[in-house]
Write a structure and sequence with these properties.
By secondary structure, this protein is mainly α. It folds into 2 domains: about 80 residues, no CATH class; about 110 residues, Homeodomain-like (Arc Repressor Mutant, subunit A), CATH 1.10.10. The protein is globular.
């Protein structure tokens, strides 16, 4: 997995990917830094002949994650005043981050949270504007897009990594959510 290849310390991974699932407003300065990293990655994606492209992207993301970790650390030190529903939402999103590669069924997450699938989706929609399925699909597709844009993994390898029964099923899933096939998405990155 791409993030694993960055060799980030577990404490930083937990801070970024598991414990901080709320949405936060960011300052203009933080937004500028984030935008800069994405512009650099986008520029590198237009250099398919650069033999160091993957390594440069890996290091850019590593630096980006450390910067985000610093920012999130400051936010964590503020006291939490979450409602029970918000806590359930946080727990759900944490579970999705940990399990989206294998579990895309809402029932799995509802069972873990001791609620019904319908209640889970309704609660999430009220709190975040997205249903449980939206959140799961978002994580699956964001991961797939990350692999398509920043690794040399084949579509079959990405499909296997995400535990789809076949490349065809993965392609249909991706196209339904993203509006284009994984191959078309990868090709669109090279055109930009």
């Amino acid at each position: 997995d791409f993030t694993d290849s960055l060799n980030l310390p577990v404490s930083l991974q937990e801070r970024l990917f598991i414990k901080n699932t709320q949405f936060y407003s960011v300052t203009e300065e933080v937004l500028d830094v984030l935008s800069s990293v994405y512009r650099q990655v986008s520029s590198l994606m237009k250099q398919p002949d650069n033999p160091y492209r993957e390594e440069i992207i890996r290091h850019l993301f590593s630096a980006h994650y450390y910067g985000l970790g610093y920012y999130m650390h400051g936010l964590q030190s503020q006291p939490s005043t979450l409602t029970l529903q918000q806590e359930k939402c946080e727990m759900f999103i944490s579970l999705v981050v940990e399990n989206f590669k294998i579990h895309r069924n809402i029932g799995f997450y509802a069972d873990k949270l001791c609620v019904t699938s319908k209640y889970l989706s309704t609660m999430l929609k009220q709190e975040t504007g997205m249903t449980a399925l939206d959140w799961i699909e978002r994580h699956v597709v964001l991961y797939a897009k990350s692999c398509l844009s920043s690794t040399s993994m084949t579509i079959q390898e990405i499909s296997d990594e995400l535990d789809f029964p076949s490349q065809s099923v993965f392609g249909k899933y991706f196209k339904r959510v993203e509006g284009m096939s994984p191959k078309a998405y990868r090709q669109s990155l090279l055109k930009d």
